[in-house]
Amino acid sequence: EAKSAGRNRLAFFDPISQAAMAELISLEADLRQAVNYQQFELYYQAQVSADGRLLGAEALLRWPHPSRGFVSPAQFIPLAEQTGTINQIGEWVLQQACAQLNAWAHEPATAGLSLAVNLSAHQFRQKGFLSLMQQLLARTGVPTELLKLELTESALVDDVESVIGLMGELRRLGLRFSLDDFGTGYSSLAYLKRLPLDQLKIDQSFVRDLVSEPNARAIAHAVIQLGESLGLAVIAEGVETAEQRELLIGLGCHAFQGYFHARPMPAAAFAELARQWPTRAADKLGQ
Ligand code: C2E
Ligand code: MG
Ligand code: MG
Ligand code: MG
């Protein structure tokens, strides 16, 4: 009886997991194609100061799939991490970001803007990442202090000593670090103070619930104060309304990113946004 129940269970679950597996395999095959044929695109989302200056942008990866439409990075990045293609994708992103920074440098409206790039834990911890960055920066000649690497806590949890060492080397090249989705991972406050970070990024889940939930407000406030006492800049992501922005300013936050200011957009649209930005480019000095 147990045997037949086991068989029934298999018969019940198999078609579902096979369908899911087939879907994953097909998505993965498409992902490899996209890597080989460079079917990706970078979008840029504005980062804005409390006094309304355009500070820079975050580069966000887009995959315009020929038949599926835009596939969300939240869907394909984890897959790319599991299959190892993330290193190639990530290298393309970094190259593209450097080329964009150089293009920005040649236009008054965009000169001096910073660009934040997301790194997956897998990519950051791959062997040879430091020399890859060294070569890329030497080849492209970008102003390194304008390039910011966004890491999540998952990139930092194990082997903290070697992570600190690697971050130190990269910082000596002039690169900056931002800790993305802060408050959602497992950071220990004890080593947070030892990491050579420049910025904490308040996760959008806290920003979303800011107005309705005192707890979210308390967490956002704590992150802002933590940043202040550690000497780190703090930026809030996922800011969608004027009310959220005002609340965050009241809590001492100085930088914002979210649909309230601008959606992620293609490079040409972002350059146009920068040209139309109300504050003059000269005001960006000393950001
Ligand atoms: P993230 O780095 O935390 O990026 C913020 C996400 O929030 C982006 O989603 C952005 O489009 C979205 N967002 C921005 N403003 C708002 C807002 O006001 N409201 C809401 N609801 N959402 C907002 P996206 O572009 O789908 O990216 C999702 C995640 O995928 C990113 O989260 C990041 O972890 C990852 N990702 C994106 N591009 C790359 C990349 O080039 N490399 C790696 N390794 N990961 C990437
Ligand atoms: Mg990010
Ligand atoms: Mg984030
Ligand atoms: Mg996120």
Looking at this protein, list some descriptive labels.
287 residues, 10 strands, binds ligand C2E
Strand-pairing-aware structural class: alpha/beta
What's the mean pLDDT score?
90
Order of helices and strands: HEEEHHEHHEHEHEHHEHEEH
Q: Describe the largest sheet.
A: 8 strands, mixed, barrel
| Ligands | ligand C2E, magnesium ion
Helix content: 40-55%
Description:
It comes from Roseateles aquae. This is EAL domain-containing protein. Residues 24-278 form the EAL domain. By secondary structure, the chain is an alpha/beta fold. The protein contains eleven helices and ten strands. It has helices at 2-36, 73-83, 86-105, 121-124, 129-140, 160-172, 189-192, 204-208, 214-230, 242-250, 267-276, and strands spanning 41-49, 54-65, 69-71, 114-118, 147-151, 176-182, 199-202, 233-236, 255-256, 265-266. Strands 1-2-4-5-6-7-8-9 form an eight-stranded mixed beta barrel, surrounded by four helices. Helix 6 links the parallel strand 5 and strand 6 (176-182). Helix 1 packs across helix 2 (73-83) and helix 3 runs parallel beside helix 5 (129-140). The longest helix is centred in the N-terminal third of the chain and has 35 residues, at 2-36. The site of one magnesium ion has 4 residues, from loops.
